[in-house]
Amino acid sequence: MALVTxxxxxxxxxxxxxxxxxFNVNNLEQVQAIMEAAHETGSPVIIQASRGARKYANDRFLxxxxxAATEVYPEISVALHQDHGNSPETCKSAIDxxxxxxxxxxxxxxxxxxxxxxxxxxxxxxxVVEMAHEVGVTVEGELGTLGGIEDDVGSGEVNLTDPDxxxxxxxxxxxxxxxxxxxxxxGAYKFTKEPDREVLAMYIIEEINERLPGTHLVMHGSSxxxxxxxxxxxxxxxxxxxTWGVPVxxxxxxxxxxxxxxxxxxxxxxxxxxxxxxxxAEDPSEFDPRYYLKPARAAMQKVVRARMEAxxxxxxxxxxxxxxxxxxxxxYREQGHQLTVT
Length: 342
Ligand code: G3H
Ligand code: 13P
Ligand code: ZN
Fold this sequence. Notes:
The chain is α/β, with parallel strands linked by helices.
């Protein structure tokens, strides 16, 4: 099976009232862990690569890993998405490579750090929507900024999304999906205590969903940072300070209010690191990479499986036949940017 478009996955998810996890990958073991979890649970899935991931793995390796994934798991609907594209050029290179979806993150300037103004964001996002829809590719935009910095990406400054601006932004750009800032951040250090409904501003999602019921909402920085995973890392020599992530039950509330894509990276990083540290500690004489990568892969698979079940995507992999990119392009041309696929 070919890769499917994210638009189709998200429209189907909206129809079925569930969310779809979007998991970041950089290497073979991450792709395998996610695909195996999708296979086990019968889930459609979004696999995403940041600019850092594309650089780390090399575009060609990354793309062919995804090709292999669709060959090995032909029954799984999988979309390949550019995470946090910093410019129309980055999005164009992802589209040329074969990604079926791109994020134009115009909430930041193209340095990926400096917060951008609304006009700049609208301009670059609109440009990407025109270019991507022309060839059937899905576009995610972002309004408001997240906290936290990953790999030098992010301003570290939080600007919650303004619902009035969100309505204007979607109208002006024609994005398929909108990432909203509700107080989360990338990485392990999101909250210093269990977040209440003021710190984690779920009310923004509810308000935007009321105003834009047809727009798929995206939650970034949505790792839950489970204490069990942090404890394993620390038990085997790691140093992760006490921290809280986004509770799964809050994500489930979001899904009831239009959240369709949930970005998770950190939880897989924690799972892999804990498993590798444990393996190293248990047998310091081992030096075959398979000895520690196998438990790392299994630990990531377990987290992904749990999220797929919690987000409700489990069991929906075979609900529909994929629409090809050229067919999606025709639909955008005929129905406009705000089409509905289902
Ligand atoms: O955007 C955040 C993701 O966790 C990707 O992180 O830029 O370190 O690959 P990265
Ligand atoms: P986490 O750091 O919470 O996993 O967020 C990942 C993300 O938003 C990728 O875009
Ligand atoms: Zn993100």
